[in-house]
Amino acid sequence: MKTGNVTPEDRLRHLLSLLSHLGWGLSPTTRPQELGSRRRDGLAGAAWMALALPDSQSMLVLAVPGAMPSLHDAFKRYEDLAREHRTILRALRDERLVADYLLLLGDRSAHLIDIGSEDVLLTSASDEEFGVRVLPVLDLQALVRGSLSAFPRKSLHQRARELADWTQLWATRIGGRLDLTPGVMARFFEWLHLARVAEQNQIGPRADETFGSMALENRAPAARRFLEDRFRPLHGQWFLLQDSPLKLLLDVVAQAGKDGILDECLASYALLGAGKFDAEVLAEAFADEELRHRSWRASVTDELPDTWHGDDEQAIDWLQVRWTVDLDRSGTVVLLRAFDSLVERAREAALAQRSALDRGERPGMQLDLLAGAPDEIAPQEAARHVLKRVLTVRTTEPARVAVARQVLLARACDWHRRFQAPDERFAPVHVDVVRAPRPAAASAEYLN
Predict the structure, then answer these.
(1) Which of 63, 207, 232, 398 is the most core-located residue (most Cβ within 10 A)?
(2) Range of the domain at 100
(3) Separation of alpha carbons 48 and 13, rounded Å
(4) CA separation for the pair 378, 349 (Å, rounded)
(5) Which of 144, 166, 185 is the last residue of a domain?
(6) What is the pTM of this model?
(7) In whole angstroms, what is the distance from residue 215 CA to residue 167 CA?
């Protein structure tokens, strides 16, 4: 297709013609729509259309003026997106355009993006490359067979490695510039990542300005205020950022804000994809090598301890028991399995407790008739209850305390969103550092 004076609408019509030869029964009334002529973000004149995919998902096709950006430099900085991508994703949110995938068409180049994970799946730099690389994925029969849903994404290990490298890069830059210790920088980025997890799970401040918006323009005072406005409620109201003085982290924010390096850091941070911020990725990224090996072994063998089910499962009051996970022996994979299972069981117990109360019965075990009834919890508060009353983590390595805390809080954020739990404080993560020699056995184990 010649590009001369070809408009974005012309490129969309050409794509419709190509799709019709790939089995799509598109309505002749399908017409591109203008994104917005008054936009000031370089997208004035862009045109879009929505396509329904065979697997009940959807794709937005957006043709923009100019070419798609190169991702070479972004990947060298361990970023997932170019600044232009973040601008476009922000524009789609502004226009309330929702879809699972986004196909971006430039003058001759194209990018296919998974919107949920913010991964660039495919790129092409010419019409010929588009025909070879992108069009086969969009063939209707290929889509029916799952060409998009089964398309290779970044592996967990790759996402974790990139996040760890990005964090190390910026911890070294900021720590070296401001003469801060590695320990202080580790805590700063632990808070930063948990704040990002919280935002993606709709926890904490609700604002138009998000981590993603930090890439869109250079606003030195706003970057400092942005982090302060997030750290304060997540620390005080939510108790999500635990075991470090708020003042210490705000001092880091203030120093980095005055220096200007905070703006650079957050601008780069905004270009990390959403797929990097869940408990499994954080666990893989920040665990030590031995802990990663334990976790890998558990993941490939699907290990679960014999003591998990107990002798009489029906006799266990899941709102009252305590479980201890030996992190050194189990790794983070089994730790997360334990937490998930405990949350599910606590939620079932809370539902049973509520039903018993509705019937006027005394909930809980009846072994001691003089004992008071167990505390009542709402089913949607099961994750918080498990952190507060049920789960303890044990390790002989003090450095692993932060890993356990970070991954459990990240998973608790995910459960909070799924349960649509009420806005309230998260409970402390209990991690016991013991001096006993680490057991030699390699199998994962829970100790009741």
Answers:
(1) 63
(2) 8-144
(3) 10
(4) 10
(5) 144
(6) 0.88
(7) 17
- Residues 127 and 251 placed together within one structural domain of the fold: no
Residue 308 sits in the same domain as residue 244:
no
Q: Could you report the per-residue pLDDT of 380-414, keeping only the tens digit for each?
A: 999 999 999 899 999 999 999 999 999 999 999 99
C-alpha 75/C-alpha 203 separation (Å) is 29
Sequential DSSP letters for 166-231? HHHHHHHHHHHHHT--HHHHHHHHHHHHHHHHHHHTT-S---S--TGGGGTS--HHHHHHHHHHHH
Give the integer Cα–Cα distance in Å for 286 and 290: 12
Whole-number Å distance between alpha carbons of 81 and 113 = 10
Give the rounded distance of the alpha carbon of 297 from its chain centre.
24
**Residue 442 CB burial class (10 angstroms; 0-12, 13-18, ≥19):** exposed
Rounded CA separation 386/243 (Å): 19
Place of tokens 């405990």: 342
**Domain-embedded: residue 368:** no
For residues 216 and 267, membership in a common domain is answered with yes
For 366, counting Cβ atoms within 10 Å of its Cβ (0-12 exposed, 13-18 middle, 19+ buried), the class is: exposed
